[in-house]
């Protein structure tokens, strides 16, 4: 088994990405962004968000360094941009404008902000790029690949089974969840920007 999969690296990849991408923490944000939609539409948003996140993570795993180098983008800059984008979404959730904006624009929330930068955000991208550098064998490659896949399966399961919660808490519950999600998302966004600023000051940008 160890010849096929590096179990230590697999565990490290899964636990690290699970903590960063936080499947449980995405539930209130997913509920708030998909409230008012049909069950079929919410299910479609769940797998689309996971597909987008997986595609972004895989792309940066293979080509991340080249993409950032070509565009002359530092990791702190990417982190700050993701934080500012999340902050805009958080403010819309807190002020109740998210549903109105989505309804008028026809925007697909599964792509932004769910797929990226909420799931496939700067933290997950950087962590994946670091783990990719550790791959020096078939077992290592399999471990990283399996870790990424398992985390995205966890994300899909969390969102998929949040739908019964949505039916249970009704409209008033969704409003409460939306405000809480906005508060949590704003904290995540501020933390991303603060980390980016610290990195710039430390000379990493």
Brief write-up:
By secondary structure, the protein is an all-alpha fold. It is built from 9 helices and no strands.
What distinguishing features does this structure have?
mainly alpha
Order of helices and strands: HHHHHHHHH
Oligomer: single chain
End-to-end span in angstroms?
41 Å
Number of helices, counting only DSSP H or I runs of 4 residues or more: 9
Can you give a write-up of this model?
With 205 residues, the chain is mainly α. The chain has one domain. 84% of the residues lie in helices and 0% in strands. It has helices at residues 7-21, 23-34, 39-71, 75-95, 98-105, 110-119, 122-133, 138-160, 163-201. Helix 4 packs across helix 6 (110-119). The longest helix is centred in the C-terminal third of the chain and has 39 residues, at 163-201. The protein is globular, with a radius of gyration of 18 Å. The chain starts with 6 loop residues before the first helix and ends with a helix. Mean pLDDT is 84; it is low at 101-105.
Give the SSE layout.
Elements: H1 7-21, H2 23-34, H3 39-71, H4 75-95, H5 98-105, H6 110-119, H7 122-133, H8 138-160, H9 163-201
Helix pairs in contact: 1-7, 1-8, 2-8, 2-9, 3-6, 3-7, 3-8, 4-6, 4-9
